[in-house]
Specification:
Chain lengths: 591, 590
Amino acid sequence: MDTISIKIDNKNFQVEKGTTILDAAKSVGINIPTLCYMHLHDLNTTHNPTGCRICVVEVVGRKNLVPACATECLPGMEIKNQTIRVLNSRKTILELILSDHPTDCLICAKNGDCDLQSMAQQMGIREIHYKGDQSHYIKDTSPAIKRDMDKCIGCRRCVTMCNEIQTVGALSSINRGFMSVVAPAFQMNLEDSVCTYCGQCVAVCPTAALTEVDHTNLVIRALADPNKTVIVQTAPAVRVALGEEFGYEPGTIITGKMTAALKDMGFDYVFDTDFAADLTIMEEATELLDRLTRHINGDITVKLPLLTSCCPAWVNFFEHQFPDMKDIPSTARSPQQMFGSIAKTYFADKLGIKRENMVVVSIMPCLAKKYECSREEFKTNGNPDVDFVLSTRELARLIKQTSIDFESLEPVEFDHPMGESSGAGVIFGTTGGVIEAAVRTAYETFTKQKLHKVDFKQLRGMEWIRESTIDFNGTPIKIGIAHGLGNARKLLQEIREGKSQYHAIEIMACPGGCIGGGGQPLHHGDSTILLARQKALYSEDKAKVIRKSHENPSIQKLYAEFLGKPMSEKAHELLHTHYFDKSNHVEISKD
Amino acid sequence: MSNRYRKNLLVCNGISCQQASDLALVAFINSKLKEYQLENEIKVIQSVCSNKCSIGPNIIVYPDNVEYSKVTKADIDDIIIEHLLNDRIVERLVFDKEKGNGVAPKKQYRIALRNCGFIDPEEIKDYIEKDGYNALAKCLTEYSPQEVTQEIIKSGLRGRGGGGFPTGLKWEITSKSVANQKYVVCNADEGDPGAFMDRSVLEGDPHSVLEAMAICGYCIGSNKGIIYVRAEYPLAIKRLKIALEQANEYGLLGKNIFGTDFEFTIEIKYGAGAFVCGEETALIHSMEGLRGEPTLKPPFPSVSGYLNKPTNVNNVETFANIPAIINKGAEWFSSIGTEKSKGTKVFALAGKINNVGLIEVPMGITLREIIYDIGGGIVDGKKFKAVQTGGPSGGCLTEKHLDLPIDFDSLTAVGSMMGSGGMIVMDEDDCMVSMARFYLEFIVEESCGKCAPCRIGNKRLHEMLVKLCDGKGTLNDLDLLRNLSVVVKDTSLCGLGQTSPNPILSTLNNFYDEYYAHVAEHRCPSGQCKSFLRYYISEENCIGCLVCYRKCPAGAISGEKKKVHVINQELCTKCGICMEKCKFHAVYLN
């Protein structure tokens, strides 16, 4: 490591060459406050538009203060972080930002979890000296995301996520000066835009400008209704993140406590989405093998690679932006929707109740799931397979609202029959997990041999795009993995250009997969939290007795009693779907 | 003008003359010439502003060098019959130097504007006759790129767009950046209110800019030039397009220029009129099709600019100086001006001054010379109060600065800046608080909104100034005003926010008493801020006629017949109708 010497507040330091003042200061234990800055280290993403100007420092010899987050350290640089000039500037700027921000903190959705609020606290703001006009915008509510631009501070983290990471292009800055605001083009509603509801904008918003649509009250109402049987499913990524809301270290697995809390709240049955993930693998792996076999046998009409379809934001993405390729993804529904449709048929029959009297609630790390459950094709006579979706954050709020002492809860097991799952279902929550789960089943089905080593470490990791070739006993199967829609776009372009070599590609919209979903506890730019959650999922997989989806006895029983076999007519009706061309929102260039 | 015609009529095409005349004046003259069958002998040229806006429309007859002013359609027959056919000057239309109207040529020195008004900008041959493209030929055939760059460095030319960065040095830095493609960008996004230096060059001498861009391309190793021009400059765009077409046709742009293997092409991109797009990083983003917003420097455009390639951005006036420097030499150029600011500067004189218009003066000239000798002094002989230089982001200079030699550094030292060259003169009737408010209003409109101090800070500054002008300010507001001004200046992302509080800070420094009067004495010393006005009815003069009572639109006057009327100050809107209607001079102002 090349080092240079710099001075901060009259102390000499050796710091890494080429780093910013902010990073250099951090490396020697000096904390410079930031607001708009965001750095996702393991995802190689830095957002430093130098817009908020909170991180300004004095550099001797420079006329103006400079932003520490984007100014490179030069040898011999003399930096001052504590002068009156610096402190007064930061405080004045923060007062300016607060002067154009509502002060309804007590009843704000982000109360206690707001970067602006913490900054005001840290800087000891007690009075806003500069008062004047505030900007007001019409509030915009979509099926998943709420926009209250009165609370936008113009940090533009959401713009970076939406455009650079996700390449969705739904949000950008419009208008000028004091009237400038982040919005979809022509200030249309989010619902009319190309938004995929991935929720990454919400995940990084420092204030309550972007929040999830809150379904907690609807769930409370359903629980209070004596005529309803309320069942709940919990997604794999929730159990490794929910603890953070109750003070546990990131990556703490609190599955049993979560189940106990849900039971205490009055859910009639607490089930596991992992069960449905196993079901998804049964269908998706079968579909993959079907296409593969036909391909190997020389059928040129067969579409390869097969793309996974569990991620609803990803489905929205290709429906909007790649509708010419809508016959490539697997037709298998997502685990959430498979769960819903089995619950309201197979399980409702078992209980002997009508689907109208059953309420299915999902606890998801995701905001796009809120939209997914409202899609028309997932309803029977207007009754949705999944009624309500709560994000991990909403569940935490609900637990707090119901005065449950989370810490003292005794772990409880999931209910049967839809609570039993394999380790393959667990790893659905991380990038690389769905395809690893699919490979475990597809391998045994294809080769008719027992797979002894179930850990496919070559498929794991956090790199944006990964690839690996798995040897199916002499047949090399090429696997691609992408997380973040921008990376998905790259692989899709390859397919469109006929350059793709893969047999199967797993795509998850959010960085890190569902563990980094838009509904998860906020990581505030700390990507080590994502790594901890990922690690926890793999350790839970490892701890399971059953590691392969097709070995899940409840799944075997479901096929034997109800569905027949994977891809059967019944399975098609309940577990598969079709996609729509939504390109009327955007111009598609097909060449 | 062209020697291919017996005489040339230069009809001023400046905005002011266009507005003063019937817009169809040129067409009318052309039809008249046809009537007299003179169309093959006399050429009508739409020239650029001849700097005599106050006495326009102006027509100059060349080669006789006779200037006619305030010409109307009715005068055209006279000019044709008397002057063009019989060579007798129409004395009654001749510009009267004694009256002092119009900017006198004395003390001026034209380099950037050398051809403006003297050639037909739509005719490349006119430009070539004036040594046009000679400099490019010289550079390509006699000198290496390094030698040319050294010549520009030696000349001491500094960027005329406002920053004052040494042009030659910028070229040298860009030439040293290694890349497979580099760009030469001409910044023609002139946006200061009241400034039209660049427009005049583009409209009057477009080829000088094209030639200079090609020279720059040769020096930095670029074959691609882009002119970023405001879409609101239709005539400039039209003339640029004509000039480009002609230069391409003549082989002065394109491949193998002057038989060398140097290739250079130029394209035009249009700006939508955002002031901030004059900032070079914002300009580049706008050209890329992105939102016109600045980004942090470094990296400077000379390292990573348009499409992340090394890009040399210079302003129109800077480029217009280049061919002259090459033709006449760096020594000649550096002999003009001050120690650190060489050459001349074009200013747009406006405000309460007798001779408004464009002037080009050597650096180091004093404000007094500009205002009194060239500008003809203050309108109606009133007292000079201040001059705002550098446009909305500059500062004001006062009486004590009248003998300051004007250059880049002296202006910065007194809290103003050269800017692109706007000069707005104010007299004793102008309120300096109100002036600062005006400029901040402009800045609030033009801020891009990217950084918090500029987006919100300027808005708050403007609101505070409005409060002061409305008579609602307190002494505490003055402290807040100064603190916020300093912070916005110190912390904003780009040059716009870093200079926008200048009008406030310089007026606070030079005219604190006026601010004080607004908040502590509740009066506006110049009487410009209406909210301080109080109308009263004199008990002596009022006869109780009820006229003002009836006419007051705000119902602010109470009174009975034959009794003295009274104005309710709470309701009074200061419209002045009562004063206007009273026949007995009973209504008076405080």
